[in-house]
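Per reviewer request, we include the raw input and output of the structure prediction for the construct analysed in the revised manuscript.
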Amino acid sequence: MRGTAENPLCFESKYITAALKHHNREFTCIDIMESPQIKHELEKQYPWIPQVYCGGYLLGGANTIMELQKLGSLERRLSSA
């Protein structure tokens, strides 16, 4: 993500952080602004930041999380990993 959980630096990172906190999920953030090599490697697989991985698998970016939240299926997807 851009920034940290305490200080997200873009709308998408803020949304992801709020959604995971809303579902009482513990999560780890990597600030790509401080880690350009990690950003480069992540974008090889999926071009958008932030990215949400759950159980070692890519769940998606902010658009995916927003859609799952809207459909009411985010909790199920987070629990199934």
